[in-house]
Amino acid sequence: MSVFRIGDKKIGRDYPPFIIAEMSGNHNQSLERALEIVEAAAKSGAHALKLQTYTADTMTLDIDEGDFFIQDPESLWEGNSLYKLYQEAHTPWEWHEPIFKRCKELGIIAFSTPFDETAVDFLESLDVPCYKVASFENTDLPLIRKIASTGKPIIISTGMATVAELDETVRAAREAGCEHICLLKCTSTYPATPDNTNLLTIPHLRELFNCEVGLSDHTMGVGVSVASVALGASVIEKHFTLARADGGVDSAFSMEPEEMRSLVLESERAWQALGTVSYGATEKEKASLKFRRSLYITEDIQAGSVFTARNVRAIRPGFGLPPKHMENVIGRKAKCDVTKGTPVSWDILN
């Protein structure tokens, strides 16, 4: 079975969706704000808070031109060098411990995305319960192997990856010692649009790789995430902030506390609604069967009188014969006197 545990939460289709609030760079380089985000995530009902563990130097080179400069009018980060962007967005490593401590105090699971081997070693010193791999690193097999060697569950975003690339990634993780993998369908645009999300990939991922699956959702609102539950998502990750108006590198596509509260509630409702393949009255519906239509006598008739469409009708409630027997009743005679409002039964038919 692909079911596994992160902290005190079981991950799998038989359990409510595991909701991750991704802080990313929305702390805006304030530890106080970061701790406020932790508190807001916990109050919103999110099950986990995720950081990103890197420095600008572990991500890229300090070059302000060419390949290292973002020149894309459609990008939220256009006009920045990669180095300056990561300087602004990174979570200082000395903040991790107080953030993780606050998470523990509030009963929310804390973990992170490492972006190089030194980050893995650092996170191991904090005893994180699992790891996340970002879409842009899902083909970094040496990093995958390093993370997998910890033996802890790995959640991997699949953005941009081909089936062949994912096969290499999953094989590398399993061969390096990871027993529990969750693949998140992800569209690596910021924000993403529903029409570019392709949720039907979720059950296909489960079938191909025999692992848990979920969604890393960069769309606005909760609709896409809730829909993913119907297709088998057992993990949902959303970027999270106190208020989009506060700004920050990821604020434009991040979820606010009330939206997160709605996601936690509605995703669990969607999961509860899945149930099983079921026909006929459920236990709760059985009391409603009496309100079906059935055949009733609609006027007083004497013994020997003929039942007609005038004195027999299909009406509510449902204590008489089912309406499908109308043709077997019409034209037959009454065995006894029958009063208006009597349910039709075989006992009154001659």
Descriptive key words:
2 domains, Type Iii Antifreeze Protein Isoform Hplc 12, 350 residues, eight-stranded parallel β-sheet, two-stranded antiparallel sheet, 12 strands, 11 helices, alpha/beta, TIM Barrel
A few lines on this structure:
By secondary structure, the protein is α/β, with parallel strands linked by helices. 31% of the residues lie in helices and 16% in strands.
Walk me through what this model shows:
The structure is a single chain. This protein is α/β, with parallel strands linked by helices and 350 residues long. It folds into 2 domains: 4-54 and 90-274, Aldolase class I (TIM Barrel, Alpha-Beta Barrel); 286-348, Antifreeze-like/N-acetylneuraminic acid synthase C-terminal domain (Type Iii Antifreeze Protein Isoform Hplc 12, Alpha-Beta Complex). 31% of the residues lie in helices and 16% in strands. The protein is built from 11 helices and 12 strands. The strands form 3 sheets. The protein has an 8-stranded parallel sheet. α6 links the parallel β6 and β7 (154-157). The chain is elongated.
